[in-house]
Amino acid sequence: MKPNIFFTADHHFGHENIIKFSERPFESLEHMNEELIKRWNERIGKDDIVYHLGDVSLGKPDVTKDILDKLNGKIHLIKGNHEYSALRVPDRFEWIKDYHELYIEDEEAAARKQKIILFHYAMRTWNGSHRGVWQLYGHSHGTLPDDEMALSFDVGVDCHNFYPVSYEEVKEIMKKKKWTPPFAPRN
């Protein structure tokens, strides 16, 4: 069976002030960490593939390692601006990059592959944006308004009830966008 593919960002494990900054509904740092781990593992199996688009943890490296050891899945990290601790446990990640162009086999996509640009930050334009390539990002914690004319959106936990988002969910969101190719023939 093919593994499921998930996207997420901005967990900020070990960051007590994020509860206040992002108005997260958690009573304490411990409650937030436990709930984020629980919701991650409810969706992700041990063989599933996860693309984390940055800001895994602001906790100390030993705390971060303990949390990462509790998370299911094969995690690929796109670096955010808060990765000091995550970078000290590189063995927990399949790879660590600043940016990635992902291709997912999909019978419904053009050429049977969906190309997705993965980056911590939202972009207004990206490689292939005028050809139906998607862009997923984090960093903004749901503070950027979604652009229904662009094939991009925030996969951060603050936007998705603190759960990772599956490829199928991303695809459904993209289908609802009003994007049209800018160079398509006009009637």
Automatic annotation (TrEMBL):
<dbReference type="InterPro" id="IPR024654">
    <property type="entry name" value="Calcineurin-like_PHP_lpxH"/>
</dbReference>
<protein>
    <submittedName>
        <fullName>Calcineurin-like phosphoesterase superfamily protein</fullName>
    </submittedName>
</protein>
<dbReference type="Pfam" id="PF12850">
    <property type="entry name" value="Metallophos_2"/>
</dbReference>
<comment type="similarity">
    <text>Belongs to the metallophosphoesterase superfamily. YfcE family.</text>
</comment>
<dbReference type="InterPro" id="IPR029052">
    <property type="entry name" value="Metallo-depent_PP-like"/>
</dbReference>
<feature type="domain" description="Calcineurin-like phosphoesterase">
    <location>
        <begin position="31"/>
        <end position="141"/>
    </location>
</feature>
